[in-house]
Write a structure and sequence with these properties.
Number of helices: 13
Shape: globular
Distance between the termini: 46 Å
Strand content: 15-25%
Structural class: alpha+beta
Number of strands: 30
Strand order of the largest sheet: 6-7-8-11-17-15-14-13
């Protein structure tokens, strides 16, 4: 069964997940990305990055077809309808959840329902080389055939799916495939179950079929707890569901994205592994979860972060892995990359950088938690006192900035982050949530503001600049309209300067010079909208928000970046920061824009 090339657009993929891993499914039903059983494992199915030996799971009609897809409402279960000259068939894809939460193994289910006429279908499961680190093989066990790839074991089960004899000696490794024909009212199933370095459960395919319905019910229950009353409600729900896919349920951490090594530009080089937890992303996520009334995820995320910091402290890291360990240095793999654009890596080099903004992020998480009616434990309160004192000592130092740059400078947004850290520390102390010297923190907070006002504002540019003495601009300063650092004329003028230099329609590049290195950054576009709302330019904010909603893919997913010329997606996907920026912006607009301007949005 020949396969199409793997250079398909990134916006053509729809993610599904189970709280442990994420699969990316193309519009033709092919799964080109699926680490098993954990999102951070080397992917057994990675054709997205390795066209030759990456492996994939294929399912589609054997004749020409048109495809339409959607998520079943209030779920992360994908429904794709294929229409051919001879009939119509519906494929329902789910990463199955258990009776009491996530399954102890990974289980991908693909239900095929005949809707009209007769449609010949074919399927193929072809495990890959896990980025050229393993050679898959088939073991004939007493209970059937099992794929093994390194320490990962995988089984394929189903019913009425027409399996053929396996191909154990194919040129690109072993595979199993089959074919069947649907008819009106027929049902067929193909499912995969996988474990890593542990025994393998072989599921009953009829139970898997029931599990799809249970998974739909579980997602709908989660969505019923989700609370939002405001503009763009359906889009807010979808963005929250996309973000939920990136919450790693074993620990409560939030992955920055589901993938690694998807490039930021056609020349490559800026390819990173985003399957780690950034303190920044977790801060924004916690703020959103609290506002949505999602108590369990909020508590799990904060508890994970605090325990992780205590284990690896006293200094904060920019990111940690999803199990709370430090992120290793990059490892390179000898595979081609998406569209041949390398490198392909795991790990991340920015983990050990000094980024002063993370102090503000940590304090913001803690204040959000307390303001929601919760109480900090004694060890956390003492740790936050130390973080506040450390901020007082460190804010005068240069750092790598939010964008993890190699040049150490006094980045304006980093100083604003330190201001935010001490502002929140003062609020926590005044509320009795933490002990410590609120007077010292307040005095140092005010010194930071004075320093920024005197050194980071350019009358010539009419904007906060990237760092003192520079003419360059940086969109991340817009994050400090919502924090309350500046909601006045200077921030409004900065928005105009950023738009003039870095704008591309509704989109924005990250900072001066970025257009030569990468595509526009999705989150930046939403930050501009949120800042516009904060400074009172409400109609501009609403118009831009409406435009940005139309730039997601067909099922509401945002990658890290968008090409301003053709709307194509670039960078890792789905991207937590993109979806978080959408959510934060929607909620800010709901809170500050008069209802008469919102209309029927």
């Amino acid at each position: 069964m020949p396969s199409a090339p793997s250079d398909r657009p990134l916006e053509s993929y729809a993610p599904i997940g189970d709280g442990r891993t994420v699969a990316l499914i193309g519009t033709d039903g092919r799964i080109d990305w699926l680490p098993l059983p954990e999102i951070t494992d080397l992917p057994v199915f990675a054709r997205l990055l390795d066209d030759e030996t990456g492996g994939c799971v294929e399912l589609q009609p054997t004749e020409e077809f048109e495809a339409e897809r959607r998520y079943i409402p209030d779920t992360n279960v994908l429904e794709t309808t294929f229409t051919t000259a001879s009939g119509t068939v519906r494929v329902t894809d789910a990463m199955v959840s258990g009776v009491a939460g996530r399954m102890p193994w990974a289980e991908l289910a693909r239900r095929i329902d005949g809707i009209r006429g007769e449609v010949p279908m074919r399927w193929r499961v072809h495990p890959g080389s896990s980025l050229q680190t393993a050679a898959p093989w088939i073991e004939n066990t007493q209970h059937g055939l099992v794929f093994r790839s390194g320490e990962t074991a995988l089984v394929v089960v189903g019913f009425d799916h027409g399996p053929h004899d396996p191909d154990g000696d194919g040129p690109t490794g072993p595979a199993v495939e089959g074919a069947f024909t649907t008819s009106s009212g027929s049902r067929h199933l193909i499912a995969l179950a996988a474990t890593h370095d542990e025994p393998l459960h072989l599921p009953d395919p009829r139970n898997v079929d029931l599990g799809i319905d249970r998974t739909i019910d579980n997602w709908r229950h989660w969505s019923s707890v989700f609370s939002y009353d405001g503009p763009w409600a359906d889009h807010v729900q979808r963005n929250a569901l996309a973000l939920k896919l990136l919450i790693y349920s074993p620990s409560g951490a939030i992955a920055a994205a589901a993938t690694t090594s998807l490039p930021e530009n056609p020349d490559g080089g800026k390819n990173w592994d985003y399957r780690h937890a950034w303190v920044r992303d977790l801060a924004y996520t916690t703020h959103a979860l609290v506002r949505f009334g999602l108590r369990e995820e909020t508590h799990a995320a904060l508890s994970w972060l605090l325990q992780t910091i205590r284990r690896h402290g006293p200094e904060l890291h920019v990111m940690y892995d999803l199990n709370g360990e430090t992120v290793p240095e990059p490892r390179h793999y000898d595979v081609s990359g998406w569209r041949g654009i390398g490198p392909v890596v795991t790990g991340n080099p920015a983990s050990g950088q000094l980024q002063l903004g993370v102090y503000g992020d940590l304090m913001a998480i803690s204040r959000t938690y307390v303001d929601a009616g919760n109480v900090l434990d004694v060890r956390t309160a003492r740790m936050l006192v130390g973080i506040a004192d450390r901020t007082c000592d460190l804010w005068r130092n240069p750092d790598s900035g939010m964008w993890e740059l190699p040049e150490l400078r006094h980045y304006t947004s980093s100083k604003m982050g330190c201001w935010k850290a001490l502002d929140d520390a003062v609020a926590l102390a005044e509320a009795g949530a933490i002990p410590g010297s609120a007077a010292r923190w307040a005095a140092e907070r005010d010194r930071i503001r004075t320093w920024i006002d005197e050194n980071c504002w350019s009358e010539e540019r009419g904007a906060y600049v990237f760092h003192p003495g520079a003419d360059d601009l940086d969109v991340s300063v817009l994050l400090h309209a919502p924090t309350g650092f500046d909601r006045g004329e200077r921030m409004s003028s900065t928005i105009d300067a950023l738009t003039a230099e870095l704008g591309a329609g509704p989109l924005l590049y990250r900072y001066s010079g970025a257009a030569a290195q990468e595509k526009t950054f999705v989150a930046c576009a939403f930050w501009r909208v949120e800042a516009l709302a904060c400074v009172g330019r409400h109609e501009e904010a609403l118009a831009l928000m409406d435009e940005l909603i139309g730039l997601s893919n067909d099922v509401g997913i945002y990658a890290e970046m968008i090409d301003a010329d053709d709307g194509s997606a670039w960078g890792n996907t789905p991207q937590a920061l993109s979806h978080l920026a959408f959510l934060s912006t929607a909620m800010t607009i709901r809170d500050v824009v008069p209802a008469e301007l919102l209309g029927d949005r």
